[in-house]
């Protein structure tokens, strides 16, 4: 089975957008492929023919043999036409190119089109369930409330947040 990933790399000297299409046949596992360093990276995930998410990073170190990409300065946009985007940013991340899952680490922050925000140090995205999952401390701000808890699951299809551990809620004065 072939695996395809689209990577758009910004050529800094020319300021042009170059599109690289990499195809990794199963036979590639039998030979060593050199790691690739890219700058200005864009990974796109697809769901039923529509863009489900895009991952942008300042740089990526792609290990074609392990099928992993180490990212720096990561920004992700999850898009659903009827509800608007969810944006997530982090200092770094790792993308599993085969499963299209990724993990974000360091000053992870997310916002929705309604102004809801979350903050944590580590979160992972699971493509199979279209969910963001975190097991560490998390802070969520929404509608004048601040929720601080341990662990969360964000179902991106339903746009619902569920804390997986203890939680404390406070009302912010207006």
CATH topology: lipopolysaccharide transport protein A fold
Name the overall outline.
Answer: elongated
Q: What would the average pLDDT be, to the nearest integer?
A: 79
Q: Main β-sheet: number of strands, strand sense, barrel status? A: 10 strands, antiparallel
For the record, the CATH architecture stands as Sandwich
Strand content: over 45%
Tally of discrete structural domains: 1
CATH superfamily: Lipopolysaccharide (LPS) transport protein A like domain
Tell how many strands the DSSP assignment holds: 12
Fraction of residues in helices?
A: under 10%
Give the helices and strands as they follow along the chain: EEEEEEEEEEEE
Structural category is: mainly beta
What is the CA-CA span between the terminal residues? 56 Å
Quick tags:
single chain; 174 residues; mainly beta; lipopolysaccharide transport protein A fold; ten-stranded antiparallel sheet; 12 strands; disordered N terminus
Describe the 3D structure:
This protein has 174 residues and is mainly β. It has a single domain (3-130), classed as Lipopolysaccharide (LPS) transport protein A like domain (lipopolysaccharide transport protein A fold). It contains no helices and 12 strands. It has strands at 3-11, 16-24, 36-47, 50-63, 68-78, 86-96, 101-112, 117-126, 131-142, 145-155, 160-163, 167-171. The strands form 2 sheets. Strands 3, 4, 5, 6, 7, 8, 9, 10, 11 and 12 form a 10-stranded antiparallel β-sheet that branches. 22% of the residues are buried.
């Amino acid at each position: 089975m072939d695996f395809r990933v689209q990577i758009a790399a910004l050529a800094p000297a020319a300021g042009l957008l170059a599109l690289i299409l990499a195809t990794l046949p199963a036979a590639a596992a039998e030979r060593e492929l050199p790691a690739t360093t890219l700058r200005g990276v864009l990974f796109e995930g697809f769901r039923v023919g529509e863009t489900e998410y895009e991952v942008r990073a300042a740089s990526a170190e792609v290990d074609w043999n392990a099928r992993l990409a180490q990212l720096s300065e990561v920004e992700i946009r999850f898009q659903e036409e009827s509800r608007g985007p969810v944006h997530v940013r982090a200092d770094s991340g790792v993308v599993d190119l085969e499963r299209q899952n990724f993990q974000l680490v360091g000053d992870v922050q997310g916002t929705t089109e309604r102004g809801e925000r979350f903050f944590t140090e580590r979160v992972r995205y699971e493509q199979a369930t279209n969910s963001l999952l975190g097991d560490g401390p998390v802070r969520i701000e929404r509608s004048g409330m601040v929720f601080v808890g341990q662990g969360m699951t964000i179902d991106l299809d339903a746009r619902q947040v569920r804390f997986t551990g203890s939680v404390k809620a406070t009302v912010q004065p207006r």
